[in-house]
Write a structure and sequence with these properties.
The protein is an all-alpha fold and about 280 residues long. The protein has a single domain, classed as MetI-like fold (Orthogonal Bundle). The chain is about 75% helix and about 0% strand. α8 packs antiparallel against α11. Keywords: Cell membrane, Membrane, Transmembrane, Transmembrane helix, Transport.
Length: about 280
Amino acid sequence: MTLSPAGSRWTSRTVVHVLLVLAALYAVLPLVWLVTSATKSVGDFSTTGAFEFGQFTLGANLSALFTQENGVFLAWVRNSLLYAGLGAVLGSLICAACGYAIAKLDFPGRRALFAVTLTGVLVPTTALALPLYLLAAQLEVVGTFWAVFIPLLTNPFGVYLARVYAEAAVPGEVLEAARTDGAGELRTFFTIGLPMMRPGLVTIFLFQFVGIWNNFFLPLVMLTDPKLFPMSLGLYQWSTRVTQFPQYNPLVITGSLLAVLPLVVAFVLLHRQWRSGLAAGSVK
């Protein structure tokens, strides 16, 4: 027996809605668990359910978090903001400049350079950790801020996305008019190309920010001083002590909740331009 078109549409719509609800639950439930668990004391973890509130010791957990080990968590927050904030801003500008140059400037080897960039997208970042460590050792910057910060400024996917968006959003006629008026390439890029690429630039910034904020393996390889750790590595170090020292459990969970908040704020503030930039890239 064949289904009618109306029945098949209703069935497919129901399946899609069910899948969307399951995907939403998969994304939201870990956040709900973080919120409820951050309110618990050490004893509440063994006496309450996963999504139950405890005695609401969130204030005490926050106080202990910021005073543990002479307030080292504040240093981790500062480091993460420096790595991710400054790294995302500078990295986005570098990606935008590279993508704009590949898309709009005619120079020898442009296609080969773009092919190499696409190849770089396929290489996992963990595979580059050892070569980056050897380079940092040659430069004698292992164990410093720069050993982590400088490699984060490059992102092949950001260059690819900038190139795609520059081709779609920056008309060649406008650039030719600016050059005819005597504007140099740098001035043309910063006054004409970059403003037109703003939605794409926001998308690149968010990808950069999220990638750097969640970066774990590179700091693990490069850093030994806990005062230089980002939050991801610092909280991991604390999580390894939970089995021997249960008092670290609320600290790790509360710190993880705070680590998620900047990502949520960034997406909420920039979601409109991020969606338009991503849609333009997908259409292209």
